[in-house]
Write a structure and sequence with these properties.
71 residues; mainly alpha; 4 helices; 69% helix; globular
Length: 71
């Protein structure tokens, strides 16, 4: 699934829903640093959207970013 959303984000870097779904996939794969970046991107793109609120909630559940971790 992440590969599909990678392609969607490549085609449309401003597609908040693709970033959101990609981030969830990355989280499921144990890649929280990359997931964090995706959730943060959703909040940048559509700060007032329901997806941004869900991204904010997801970010609150992630462990703190480690030094050198993708942000």
């Amino acid at each position: 699934a992440v590969t599909l959303f990678d392609r969607a984000v490549e085609r449309d870097p401003d597609h908040a829903e693709a970033h959101f779904r990609r981030a969830h996939g990355l989280l499921a794969l144990g890649r929280p640093g990359e997931a964090r970046a995706g959730f943060e991107r959703v909040r940048e793109l559509k700060p007032e959207s329901p997806a941004a609120e869900k991204a904010r909630q997801a970010l609150g559940q992630l462990p703190p970013a480690a030094a050198g971790e993708a942000q």
